[in-house]
Amino acid sequence: MVEATRVPPSACPWCGEMHDEAESPSGRAATVGDITICFDCTGVAQFDGSMMLAKIPPDEWAALPEAVRDDYHRTRALLLLMKSGRWGGQA
Ligand SMILES: [Zn+2]
Prior knowledge:
The chain is α+β, with helices and mostly antiparallel strands.
């Protein structure tokens, strides 16, 4: 089971929704530099040095390993499917 860990309250840089928790498939607590996905708008962000959410500059996004970008796209697709209510699970 994935457990949420507390992070300093921070607004999503894309939609402005406030977040104070982060989850990791591994269960590891979020740390500086981690990439995260906003569950509200599915925007990708990164924890800056103060653990605030920040947009990732396009050149830094492009420099990330392909596996990381693929994980984001798969997770985003799953979130959008969950939000659509078309998967039969709980959204
Ligand atoms: Zn957002």
